[in-house]
Amino acid sequence: MTKNEIAEILADIGTLMELKGENPFKIRAYAGGARAIEALENDEFERLVAEGKIDTIKGIGEALAAKIAELHATGRLGFYDTLKASIEPGLVEMLRIPGLGPKKIAALHKELGIASISALEAACKEGRVAALAGFGEKTQEKLLEGIRNREAYSRRHLWWDAYQVAAPILRGLQALGPVKRAEIAGSLRRGMETVGDLDFIVAASEVAPVMDWFVANPGIKEVTARGDTKASVRFEGGIQADLRIVPPEQFAFALHHFTGSKDHNVLMRQRALDRGLSLSEWGLVPAAGEGTAKEKASQNKGVAVTEEAGVFAALDLAFVPPELREGLGEIEAAEKGELPKLVELPQLKGAFHNHTTASDGRNTLSEMTAAAEALGWEYLGIADHSKSSRQANGLTEDRLVKQIEEIGALNASGKYKTRVFTGTECDILPDGSLDFEDAILAKLDYVVVSVHSSFSQDEETMTRRIIRAVENPRATMLGHLTGRILLEREGYRVDASKVIDAAIANGVVIELNASPYRLDMDWRHWRRAAERGLKCSINPDAHSTAGLSAVKTGINSARKGWLTRDDVVNTLPLAKVEAWLAGKRGRR
Ligand code: DGT
Ligand code: CA
Ligand code: CA
Ligand code: ZN
């Protein structure tokens, strides 16, 4: 173990002992010891440890020297492990609340029995913390705010939520008089499933009015930074936004740079260097010669480019769509002219996997159909839950048969231009069998099979379970492969590549569940899976009419997965979908 790692552990020991309310003298010994070895040069520290003379350093006694030697030699310390195990993890978590140190936490624990952030929050709300000696009303208020902020600030954000914040700001920027160009950059533009912060790039003739407008946006809680050409703000919900204002001739370079990803940028910069050029947010300039890249760019010594495509062209590359800029082979493909023609939102002709009030949806069959018609969709698949999903009001056989009749009548009525398909989101039971008998499934246009129970099965069992369902001749498509809920819950353990193989072998589609919370199967699997012949269905999993729009986030992930129109079944026009589903039914 290195000097700095050891110092960190000693400091941590001090903190943990303080949390436990131990003897202040001992606590100081560890904190002081950490500082003492931090102050040493690396080689001096190594020499002293090797010679067994680390205790000659002021602040390091015999006992501490033995612990340092143990850490240095083995990378472990029994005393530290025991100490860690003896402390409730909630107390350690509380350290992350601003304004709350180990001493205060120990007091809260001792006096009020508080051992978790949630217990602290409750105690603050009940006024019990303010009543404690050494705390008071003000401290209690601060702690509550710290707890709220910690939750909001530490989080990434769903793409959809980030987009709701970003879209009006972008429109506002673009409408400002001095603004010539304005775009969203960063992970939001790349269509990542979650977003850390928002990045705006603006080219403007005048800077101050743009800054003034930006920092005065409604919903801004705090302006965290404001410089000549840069500003950062934090919104009520916790999301941050960065604004950068650049001269118009730098716009394309800045947009490219701040769109990222970092991995993509590194590869692009290397490619530029191979051509004797230096690529940066300021421009594409000769690498050789006097001056920084920024200086050269502002002296117009570089390649002049107005559009991002020009940045790529200058490096002999086709334009790489932002969603592909992850450093995962896009540059090679752009060089060879082999970039895929990515699927686009207007190419979707309908969607499967939607719920109605029959199970846990909030809109009726008619309302969902009207909404699909308003989107211009040729077809809408209804896939309400099956009977075992009781928590979701899953349909019994009788209710499903009734729904099939209802849908038949609706289609026959000619009331809507959108054709409705009968389906089900049929539970995959723990043993891999399906929740409905074959005779019931045979009445449907299609069947989505999904796991909604026994999430804790081990990977092998879960994989076998899902493959068995995929091999069922009634299965048309597999719902949400892992069941993950972004930023909330990990998916269940499953061997994705084995399931993909089984789906391909059985002509079963895997859905790209487009719910902003799911985006499952993950985009990182799609490129290879589609190359091997897997078809995708971008499924909104809508539980309301508004939920149908989730296909937008599904398109982001499909594009990140290099998918084209041909890979996605719900780009097919109605007649082709009918033929596909009839063909599948015929083969059973
Ligand atoms: P996020 O906000 O965590 O979801 O992810 P990004 O990709 O939006 O990252 P962000 O906001 O930190 O920076 C935006 C872009 O700026 C990033 O994708 C690439 C570029 N960038 C930022 N810092 C660096 C860096 O240190 N090196 C390189 N090559 N590019 C950077
Ligand atoms: Ca960002
Ligand atoms: Ca940023
Ligand atoms: Zn489901």
What report would you give on this structure?
With 588 residues, this protein is an alpha/beta fold. The protein folds into four domains: 3-153, DNA polymerase, domain 1 (Orthogonal Bundle); 156-242, Beta Polymerase, domain 2, CATH 3.30.460; 247-339, DNA polymerase, thumb domain (Beta Polymerase, domain 3, 2-Layer Sandwich); 345-586, Metal-dependent hydrolases (TIM Barrel). 45% of the residues lie in helices and 12% in strands. The chain has 25 helices and 17 strands. The strands form five sheets. Strands 2-4-7-6-5 form a five-stranded mixed sheet, with helices on both faces. α18 links the parallel β10 and β11 (379-382). α1 (3-19) packs antiparallel against α2 (24-38). The longest helix has 18 residues, at 136-153. It is globular and about 90 Å long. The N and C termini lie far apart (63 Å). 43% of the residues are buried. The model has no long low-confidence stretch (mean pLDDT 95). The structure holds 2'-deoxyguanosine-5'-triphosphate, calcium ion (2 copies) and zinc ion. The site of one calcium ion has 4 residues, from β4.
